[in-house]
Amino acid sequence: MTALATAPATRPWRSVLRLQRGLLIVWSVIFTAGSGALLWAYGPGGSAAAAAWKTKCSVHGCDWSAPITNYHLARAAAEFLIGIIPFVAAAAAGALIGRELENGTADLAWTQSVSPTRWLATSLAVPAALLTVGTTVLVLLHRLLYDAHQVPVTWRWWSDPTFNANGTIALVYPLLGLALGALAALVLRRAVPALGLAAIATALVHTVLGVARPHLWPWVTRTGSVSTGYNPPPNVLLGDQGAITATGAHVSDTCFTDRICAKAFDVTGYYVDYHPASHFWPLQLMETGIALAVTALVLATAFTLLRRRTA
C-alpha cells in the first residue's frame, strides 16, 4: 500500500506500475483478445469466410455457413473490446486513485518528496501511455481488416461499433475516461463510488457526442422527383428526409410518396440528407477534437482541485 510513498522520487513510475498491476492484467487480456481476433479474421478466418461466400452465396441469397459466421463474430468481438476500453480506463482510474486517497497512501507519498501534482501526473501518464500505444495497434489492425474486408455484407462504416473502432476517437476516449476517473476520485475520495461515477460520466459523454456526431459536419442533400422518390445512394448515414413543395420549402412527408396525395399538397419532389463514406474522416476528426477539448478541461479541473486541497 505504501509502495508509492517509499519509492525514490525520481522514478515513481515503477510504483505506479505495481499499484496498477490489476489494470495492467485487464488491459493485457483486452489487448491480446482483441488483436488475436482481428489477426485471425484478417488471416485464416477471412480466407475461409471468403471461400465460403464464393461457393455458397449469390446476389439472391446466402447460406451463412460457419466460416462466415465466425468471421463476423470475431470482428464484432474485437469492436466490442475496443469499445469498452474507455469505460475500463475510467473505472480503473477512479478506483485506483480513489483507493490511494481513501487509504491515505497519497498523503504519505506527498511527504516523501513527491508533490501532489507530480503524483497525479504520474498516476495518469503511465496508464495513458500504455493505453494509447495498445489502442493504436488495435485500431491499425481493425483498419487493416476493414480495408481487406472479404465478405461484402453487414459491415457499414457509419455503424457505432465500427466507427468508434476505426479511427482517432478510439485513441481519445480512453484518455477521457482516465481524466474522468481521476476527477471522480478527487471529488469523492473513495474508491467504489469514484469507480461508479467515472463509468457513468464516461457513458454520458460518450452518448452525448455519439448523438451529436452526425451533425458535426454538413450533410449532403439529394433531391428526387415525385416519380423517383427519395432514392438515396447505398452505404450512407441517413439523416433528415421529407418532401419539397412548389415553393422550394422542405417539409415533412405526409404522403409517403403517394402521387395523388403529393399532388394535393403541391409536392414537387423529395429530399434526403446523408453522409457518404467520404465524410468518415471529417466526422472522426471533429469528434476527436471535441473529445480532446473535454479531456483537457476535465484534467485542468482535476489538477486545480488537487492544488486547492493540498495548498
Name its key features.
4-stranded antiparallel β-sheet; 311 residues; 12 helices; 6 strands; alpha+beta
Structural features, described:
The chain is of the alpha+beta class and 311 residues long. It has two domains: 3-215 and 279-309, no CATH class; 220-278. It has helices at 3-6, 13-19, 21-42, 44-56, 66-103, 105-110, 116-147, 160-165, 169-188, 191-212, 259-264, 280-309, and strands at residues 57-58, 61-62, 220-225, 237-245, 250-251, 267-275. The protein has a four-stranded antiparallel β-sheet with strand order 3-6-4-5. Helix 5 (66-103) crosses helix 10 (191-212) and helix 7 runs antiparallel to helix 9 (169-188). The longest helix is centred in the N-terminal third of the chain and has 38 residues, at 66-103.
Structural class: alpha+beta
SSE topology string: HHHHEEHHHHHHEEEHEH
Task: State the end-to-end distance.
Answer: 24 Å
Q: Could you estimate the helical fraction of the residues in percent? A: 55-70%
Number of helices, where a helix is a run of at least 4 consecutive DSSP H or I residues: 12
Which secondary structure elements does this structure contain, and how are they paired or packed?
Layout (H helix, E strand, L loop, with lengths): L2 H4 L6 H7 L1 H22 L1 H13 E2 L2 E2 L3 H38 L1 H6 L5 H32 L12 H6 L3 H20 L2 H22 L7 E6 L11 E9 L4 E2 L7 H6 L2 E9 L4 H30 L2
Antiparallel strand pairs: 1-2, 3-6, 4-5, 4-6
Helix pairs in contact: 3-5, 3-7, 4-5, 5-7, 5-9, 5-10, 7-9, 9-10, 9-12
